[in-house]
Design goal:
Order of helices and strands: EEEEEEEEEEE
Number of helices: 0
Helix content: under 10%
Length: about 130
């Protein structure tokens, strides 16, 4: 079982930057593909960014390309999401997730259904 704990959310203004962190428990963190999803109340949870276990492969939603950067530090069992040029439409609860079979996939997967473990989420609010 893997536990994921997000931190770093908050209230910022449009155009600002914010960095999220997700700390994971367990010894097999480096084998998991990790991802960030976000959800607005009343809407489906959507993929934001993902990174392979070794950090060499990443994937981003079109809406955040060029503004968000996902990274990981396997020595610290932590994945990060650096967000810049934030927009009001980025407002959501951000969740990190782990895909324990990701190392067997040809690419980082974006489907919510393949992720096995989820954090509770951290709120990001961007004011205009």
């Amino acid at each position: 079982q893997v536990q994921l704990v997000e931190s770093g959310g908050g209230l910022v203004q449009a155009g600002d930057s914010l960095s999220l962190s997700c700390a994971a428990s367990g010894r097999t963190f480096s084998t998991y593909t990790m991802a960030w999803f976000r959800q607005v109340t009343g809407k489906e949870r959507e993929f934001v960014a993902g990174i392979s276990g070794n950090g060499r492969s990443t994937r981003y939603a079109d809406s955040v390309k060029g503004r968000f950067t996902i990274s990981r530090d396997n020595a610290k069992n932590t994945v990060y999401l650096q967000m810049s040029s934030l927009k009001p439409e980025d407002t959501a609860v951000y969740h990190c997730a782990a895909d324990k079979r990701g190392e067997f996939a040809p690419a980082v997967r974006s489907s919510i259904n393949v992720y096995d473990y989820w954090g509770q989420g951290t709120q990001v609010t961007v004011s205009s």
